[in-house]
Write a structure and sequence with these properties.
heterodimer, A: six-stranded antiparallel β-sheet, four-stranded antiparallel β-sheet, globular, B: mainly beta, Porin, eight-stranded antiparallel β-barrel, about 10% helix
């Protein structure tokens, strides 16, 4: 063998070259995030109130927020811009019929054909009896005054819809998520008033001739015994981190990041605090049926250090709610209960249906799931199960909860 | 995307030119399995097979390489053209210098919702040893460097729940540049 001629020097130098390359063996990633976001701007309230052109032709669905079902109409908020009105007579073929343009709108509720919606600092009431001829019937001024930045000069901090592109250059780390929260149906019609149904993430709700609205810190009450003439009555301080409100059996269940408050609203204009069930800091919509409250806790950026679980509380004695059971979930957002079916939105993990007959075993009694959607909030309507998520609004036939059947999908029009 | 067709075409052209000279160019195959090592702690499995011809007068194997690279973020199917230079091929143990360039495709990546995957340019120089065995086949060990580009586009990957309620609001485009040390072991004939 002629091994003496083996080119050792060449091999060695090339090997060293490879090693030099290795010092640079680091994956790189350029992350371009395109945000659809709201940039703070000053808005003059006087100017805002001068606007009167509310009713518009249907607009593309691009950033859906809350959903609200009233009769055959489905209301979908377009975050900060207004409300889509959808004719949902046939859930298999929902049709956009009008758009109500309301700057700064976030939440809504419908009482006997009167739609209540926030318009930054004001509460507006619209008569929606005839969707082709929606009229503003009332403006209650300065009720959401926590949005004022300078009340003397009539300035509020508003938000302008903006697309921002941000480029981050860096090394590769394990995938990070940027997830936030969501929420169930609420219907507490009394007497001759007919209320609609909101999702579990609602901040507006109706019960016993009163409209209850929650902000971060406060509960505001409006007397709506005369539906088209809502009158502000009082404010209750709640502490911080308030997220959702759910009315049930003359009680208000208020979800916050640190726990659930139960208020007795037997005297509708003067709710009295009965108890607070405290839990770890998490995002938590709540729904109630009979003697149980169902709370989902979710951990994410918004509600740090939280956990992902479904908790069932016995609220027979509302002054002393007791934890009955707890089941691990993946990423629970909104939820709703209908009969003995508990529907839980699991964000990117889809929608799950559980049998709730045995509260000790709910988590083990999964009836079905839909995994190819992103589910944020859900309403169990009389005709269909309505699910919102980050790819639009889905409706399912849920006559058989163990076999949900997709009947329609309103897709989002924006593609970032 | 722009440099890949150029590199591929150029090298293919080179091969065709060589073939036109009417030399006898026996078929050769080399199949390797290995790892793609990055710092601080990224290791991916890789397998590839090279099919080409041997150009004896230049001690060169030229051909096409394909295989699979399992990066954490994406599965790549590389398709590249290149050569292996084996100047002292008569020796029992001889060095091999190899250079490959082409494009990595994402056809094998399992699709997920709206996520879009796009491959990218791949470049892979390496140096190794070819060891003759008693049979016709040779054992190859090689150490190299591989750079692979890839893109992952996730539209509306987020549900924001803030004061405005739950709403989607973001799209993320990730442009990866994987830079790895490659170590491979395989057989050729």
């Amino acid at each position: 063998m002629k091994t003496s001629r083996f080119p050792a020097r060449l091999v060695t130098s090339l090997f060293i070259l490879s090693l030099m390359l290795f010092t640079n063996c680091k994956d790189e990633v350029i992350r371009t995030r395109t945000f659809h976001t709201m940039v703070p701007v000053y808005i003059s309230v006087a100017k805002l109130r001068a606007e009167s052109d509310f009713l518009q032709a249907p607009q593309p669905l691009s950033s859906p927020g809350k959903i609200y079902l009233f009769g055959n109409f489905l209301f979908i908020t377009e975050v900060n811009k207004g409300i889509h009105i959808v004719d949902n007579t046939n859930p298999g073929n929902p049709r956009f019929i009008k758009f109500i343009s309301i700057a700064g709108n976030v939440d809504l509720a419908v009482n006997s054909n009167i739609l209540y919606a926030d318009n930054y600092v004001d509460l507006l009431a619209f008569d929606v009896t005839d969707p082709s001829n929606i009229r503003q019937v009332k403006r209650v001024e300065n009720v959401f005054d926590n949005q004022y930045i300078d009340q003397a000069r009539g300035l509020i901090l508003g938000y302008k819809d903006t697309v921002i592109t941000e480029v981050v250059r860096g090394d590769v780390y394990p995938a990070g998520y940027y997830e936030y929260d969501a929420g169930t149906p609420v219907s507490n019609s009394t007497g001759k008033q007919v209320y609609g149904t909101g999702g579990s993430t609602a901040r507006f709700t109706l019960m016993n001739n009163n409209l209850y609205t929650v902000s971060q810190h406060q509960l505001k009450l409006f007397n709506v015994s005369q539906a088209d003439n809502p009158r502000y009555s009082s404010t209750v301080d709640l502490g911080g981190g308030i997220e959702t409100i759910f009315p049930y059996d003359n009680k208000l269940f208020i979800g916050s990041t640190t726990g659930m408050h139960i208020y007795d609203a037997t005297v509708p204009s003067a709710p009295v605090k009965l108890s607070t069930y405290r839990h770890v800091t998490s995002c938590d919509p709540v729904v109630v049926q009979d003697k149980y409250a169902y709370v989902t806790l979710r951990s994410d950026n918004f509600c740090q250090q939280g956990i992902n679980v479904l908790q069932v509380l016995n609220i027979e004695n509302p002054s002393n709610p007791v934890l009955v059971s707890s089941f691990p979930m993946e990423k629970p957002y909104g939820l709703t209960i209908s009969g003995s079916s508990l529907f839980i939105c699991e964000g990117q993990y889809g929608l799950k249906v559980f049998n709730s007959d045995d509260v000790q075993a709910i988590g083990r009694k999964q009836l079905s799931s839909v995994t190819n959607i992103d589910a944020a909030d859900v309403i169990a309507g009389p005709k269909s199960l309505i699910v919102t998520g980050n790819r639009g609004i889905y409706q399912y036939n849920y006559t058989d909860p163990s076999k949900l059947k997709l009947i329609s999908h309103l897709a989002l029009s924006n593609t970032l | 995307m722009s440099t890949y067709p150029k590199a591929l075409t150029l090298i293919t052209l080179l091969l065709v030119t060589l073939a036109a000279k009417g030399q006898r160019m026996p078929y050769t195959n080399q199949t390797d399995a290995g790892v793609l090592i990055g710092t601080p702690s990224a290791t991916s499995f890789s397998a590839q097979t090279f099919n080409g011809v041997t150009i004896r007068k230049w001690n060169l194997d030229a051909g096409i390489t394909t295989g699979i690279d399992l990066y954490n973020q994406v599965i790549i199917l590389p398709l590249s053209a290149g050569f292996k230079w084996n100047p002292f091929r008569a020796h029992t143990v001889s060095p091999v210098i190899s250079l490959n360039g082409g494009y990595g495709f994402t056809w094998l990546q399992r699709r997920k919702d709206d996520v879009k995957y796009e491959g990218g340019v791949i470049i892979n120089p390496s140096i190794g040893l070819r060891i003759k065995t008693k049979s016709r086949s040779k054992i190859n060990v090689a150490l190299g460097f591989r750079q692979q580009k890839a893109e992952i586009y996730q539209p509306m990957s987020t549900i924001i729940f803030d004061y405005f309620g739950p709403h989607p609001n973001m799209a993320i485009m990730e442009e990866y540049k994987f830079r790895r040390l490659t170590f491979s072991l395989g057989l050729s004939f």
